[in-house]
Structures are given as C-alpha cells and as structure tokens.
Amino acid sequence: MSERPPLLVIVGPTAVGKTAFCVLLGQRLRAEIVSADSMQVYRGMDIGTAKPTEAERGGVPHHCLDLVDPNEAFNVADYRRHALAAIEDIHRRGRLPILSGGTGLYVRAVVDEFLFPDRGADWELRRRLEEEAERIGRAALHARLAAVDPETAARLHPNDLRRVVRALEVYERTGRPLSEHLRESRARDSRFDLLMFGLTRPREELYERINRRVEEQLHRGLVAEVEGLMRQGLDEGDVAMQGLGYKEIIAYLKGRWSLEKAVSVLQRDTRHYARRQ
C-alpha cells in the first residue's frame, strides 16, 4: 500500500459534466473538490466561468474558487500554493480530495510537480509579446513559437494568445521549450497516490451541451455580469476579461458585434477550446 496521500483527479473538456460527476462522487465518498479552473479563481465572475452555484455543489465542499478579485495578478504558482494547502487540509481531516478542472496546466502543477513560471510572471515580457502579436498578427507569433517549440505549438490554436505568450515566456526565460519542462516534470514521481480519470462524450453531444450552456449563461445574466465588471474598471485588456464569455460580450457591449454574433462566436470558440482540451 502506498505511503503517499491519495488524490483522485477528474479531467475532461468544458461542458462534459465534470461538476455534476464530481459532486456525485463527493457525496458518496465523503470527498471534497479542489477546482483546477484558471477562471473560477476570480470573485464576481460566476456566470461566464460556469462556476457551480451553491445548489449545484450539492453540499460538497469546494476549494480554490473565488480566491482573488479580477484586477489582481494571479498565476499558476499562486494556484499551486492554494491547491496544495487545500489538499493537505482535506487529508488532515480524513477526507478524500478530488482535483478537477479543465485547465491542464493547473492540474499538472499539482500532480506533476510542474510549476510555471517558477519565479512568477514576467509581465513586461508578456506585454511585449502581446504588443508584438498586435503588430505582426497572432499567426506570426504562433509561427515563432513553432520554430522553438513545435510540440507545444501543435496543440495550441494561433488565436489562443494567452497560452502562446505563456509558452514563449517559458522559452525566453529558461532557454528551453515548455514541452521539455513538461516531459521532465512527468518523469518525476508525484507526491500523491494518484487515480486519474478522463471524462468524454461523443463530439456532437458535447457540442450541443456547449451551445446549450452558452444560451443558459445568457438567460442567467451573462451580459449584466460583464456590464458590472466593466463598471468596476475592468476591460478587455485585463487578463481576467480575456476568458471565454467575457471578451465576446465586451465586443457586443462596445457595439462592435451584435448580440447574435457574440453568442455565435462564443459557442464556436468554446467548441474549439473543448477540442484542444
């Protein structure tokens, strides 16, 4: 029997049903859920991030939600610290932690001992890379990543600017590609006794769930949520507002798109994101 503490990990694409499944497990196993979602850490961003409501949590304790305000800096190193503290506390109380979410880097930061970036974010470098993308285009910046880290570039869409910039940041700061760091981290033993499951659904069924989720988010007040965040001074240039569901609605509120187009683009981009997960 392993001497390492147990950790159940549930991963899968957005809208596959991770929340409901993990809540059912939590109720039956006396477990608690540790979220691994890079957007659900922000307070006041509930509808667009599909953050589970109190009712949806079914009485199962959830951790690593609502950690910071949307205008605060937060990276995977911060997440890892919060997640490990939560898991340790759950073990101390004799319960089982379930790590679940769709942000692969956050999951790997916990189970693979991978930490990015190990010295905190280089915001100046990120701004320079983002400005470069504006100047030469996202496809060109993606091609630059492909030249130094073809493995990472192959799994990232050129429009996934945040992750393309993050991968280039790793390379520029360490001189080694992100894919190499990830391989090394996977080769090391985890501190946990892991049991990992990946959830999936037929593609057409998943896409229909995504489309329906977006419609439900609108019905629950996604536009009003984004309006409220903008009244607080947040805008599309802020990291938190670049997530799916926020930048599209901002384009509508600023008059660049109709609401119909914003919804269509959000559904399409969420489907693309699920395919990459």
Report on the structure:
There is one protein chain. With 277 residues, this protein is of the alpha/beta class. The chain has three domains: 6-117 and 189-198, P-loop containing nucleotide triphosphate hydrolases (Rossmann fold, 3-Layer(aba) Sandwich), CATH 3.40.50.300; 123-181, Histone, subunit A (Orthogonal Bundle); 203-276, Crystal structure of tRNA isopentenylpyrophosphate transferase (bh2366) domain (Helix Hairpins, Orthogonal Bundle), CATH 1.10.287.890. It has twelve helices and five strands. It has a five-stranded parallel β-sheet with strand order 3-2-4-1-5, with helices on both faces. Helix 4 (123-136) crosses helix 5, helix 9 (203-220) packs across helix 12 and helix 11 (247-253) packs antiparallel against helix 12. The longest helix is centred in the C-terminal third of the chain and has 18 residues, at 203-220.
SSE topology sketch:
Blueprint: E1 6-11, H1 18-29, E2 31-35, E3 62-63, H2 76-92, E4 96-100, H3 104-111, H4 123-136, H5 138-148, H6 150-155, H7 161-174, H8 178-187, E5 193-198, H9 203-220, H10 222-231, H11 247-253, H12 259-276
